[in-house]
Structures are given as structure tokens and as C-alpha cells.
Amino acid sequence: MTDEDEREFRAQLAQLLQEHRDLDAAIAALQESPGSDILQVQRLKKRKLYLRDHINQIEDQLTPDIIA
Question: 10 Å Cβ neighbour count for 36?
Fold first, then answer.
């Protein structure tokens, strides 16, 4: 992996982590409000899980393989 690739992965990772945190806040706010849209909360949670999977994939690419 080149330095340029690593910078791009790290920038993408930072963006995904920020979006994940924003979804946390949005989900919490929706759940606390009376009469919240359950379907909307479920969609946000699904998006959050997708982001977590994508974050894990990028972190795996940034972590060097160690042969034991």
C-alpha cells in the first residue's frame, strides 16, 4: 500500500467515523422524542451497521498482516 492510498483510507475512515457518531446522536434524539418514527429509527440503525462494517474493512486494510 502506498502512502497516498493510506492517506485516502485514513481520510475515508475519519469521514465514516464522523457519520457513525452523527447517526448515534440522531438515533438517540429520535428515540427520546415522543411519537418518533420507528421505521426511521430502524433505517438509521441499519445504516449505522453498514457503516460499522465498512469502517472495519478499512481498519483491516490499514492494519499490517503479521505472520506468526
Answer: 13
Q: Which helix (H) or strand (E) holds 27?
A: helix 3-32
pLDDT tens, position by position, 10-58: 999 999 999 999 999 999 999 998 888 899 999 999 999 999 999 999 9
- Any idea where the domains of the chain sit in the sequence? 3-61
Give the integer Cα–Cα distance in Å for 31 and 6: 37
Q: What are the distances in angstroms from CA 32 to CA 8, 28, 38, 45, 53? A: 36, 6, 11, 15, 26
Q: Which of 25, 3, 15 has the alpha carbon at shortest distance from 55?
A: 15
pTM over 0.90: no
